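I'd like us to work through together how a protein chain folds, taking it slowly. To get us started, please write out a protein record for me. Go ahead whenever you are ready, and we will take it from there:
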Amino acid sequence: MGRTARRWFYALSLLGCLSSLAARAASPVWVLHGAHSTVYLAGSIHLLPAQDAQLPSALDQAYASSAKLVMELDLGTLDPLAIAGWMSEHGALAAGTRLREVVGEPRYARVSSAATDLGVTTELFDGQAPWAVSLELADLDYVHQGLDPESGVEEQLLRRAQSDHKPTAGLETLSDELGGLAGLARADQLRLLDQTLDELKQSPQETRELVSAWRRGDAPQLATLLTQEYKSFPALYQQLVTARNQRWLPQIEQLVKGDQNCLIVVGALHLVGDGGLLELLRKDGFTPTQLN
């Protein structure tokens, strides 16, 4: 369990963070106007290639206008030792149980092959639950493809906030973020592992296409590339997206009703679609508009 808190966060979020943006989007940032505040709600890609890491100008504008940075997790306060302890408790198989027994020989062979391709040994995963193995493999693959955690949207904004002495906050705790996956039924954990193994075959070119589509706000392209698997896996969508959006909504609305401008950054998958934050906010009488 050598992963840091931030990399678990990135691996989790990248299982679905790129899904789709609003049609004809010009930027990944929306604006909510309160009586005494302006709240910017931005869709994020949590990792970016180091050579293509410049943030869209709308994000720069939103950050400059905000007195506070709010993320899914407050990355500035996460303790790597705390997440290692949490994963040891919740991400491990029962004592004496090995991954091969849980996933079956054919699937274990796929895990072993993927581990070899990514430069690690299968023993790294032997005591972990299938959902945790999925995150490990996703994390390793993103780095293998050249996606840089230090260049991700949140990391860039966090460094600015720390340099500018702007306060940061999170919409949820570590248990909120990872607990849904830990609570998946074993069959769904195996489906998640299968999905991750399938997606390891994605080419670096496809990754570049995803980043480009996010920058353009190209909703049709993003939907074509990434949304289909969630239509056939509602349990995962419920845990990764729907339930978390419902938990975040009251906090976002409270910030809009406050007296301080702030920038909220979440994975773009959380913004739109059925149960997306933009839809939920409109139902509650708010009017998000796009920042061009």
